[in-house]
Every structure is written in C-alpha cells, then in structure tokens.
Amino acid sequence: MMEDLPFTRVTQARSFLRVAIDYAGSLSMKENRLRKTRVYKVYVVVFVCFEVRAIYLELVWDVSTNAFIAALNQFVTRRWLPSVIFTDCGTKFVGVFNKLPDLVNDPSCHNQITGSTYCTWHFNPSAALHLGGLWEAPVKYIKSLMT
C-alpha cells in the first residue's frame, strides 16, 4: 500500500501559495546571434507550485545569496509571498532563510506585504535527496529542453 499524500499536496489553495524552489543549473547565453559575441553564464531558478504543479522560471547571473534574493523578490512581486517554501539544504537557500525575517518586516522592500503575512521554510534532510521529487522532475525536464 502507498502512503497518504502530505497535507500540503491535497488541500485546495490559490496557486503558488506553497512552492518548492531549486536551481536548474547553468546555461550559456549569447548577447546576440553574431559569431564573435560575448557569452554569459546564467542560472535558472525554478519555482514549482504544489497545488497545480505550475512552473515559474527566473534567470539569475550567479548562485549567490543576493542573486537568489533578487529572484525571490521578482517572484513575490508577481505571485505574492508563499506561505510555505520547500528547498534542499543549499547554502544560498539557508542564507536567504536567515535573511527572510528582515526582508518581510522591512516596509521599503515589500510594501504590499502586511504584518500578518508569514512564510514557513522547510529544508530537505541532507541524506534524503529523494524527498525533493516533486521539484526535481521539472528541473530535469527544463535541463533537457535547454541543452
């Protein structure tokens, strides 16, 4: 017999209320189509909705904590702050988790977020990589499309 699905997967809610976040690796992006053009290395941040499995992609220039905060800021501007975030234990995610209370409480960063808004962050255990299957499958699909 199979185990029941988690509560976060079966309750009805607006899209992107509960999300999973992961990086889809690096890509090479050309400035234009000319032969001797600059090539930039960019990274894709993948936001996966738990309710309908919709995918939101955001490009960042590096894998630093500040770049991820900028991507999360773009996501919050378009989709609102999620109530639950699931990620692996990457250093960029842990760094943002430590800075998140300051970002939410700062009115100059997000003036649309009220004081009652909260965000719960869940990390996968380091030894249990199989627990992130919901968001690793879209990452695998995106990598296959972009290579």
TrEMBL record:
Lineage top rank: taxon: Eukaryota
The protein, known as: Integrase catalytic domain-containing protein
A molecular function GO annotation: nucleic acid binding
Species classification: Eukaryota, Metazoa, Ecdysozoa, Arthropoda, Hexapoda
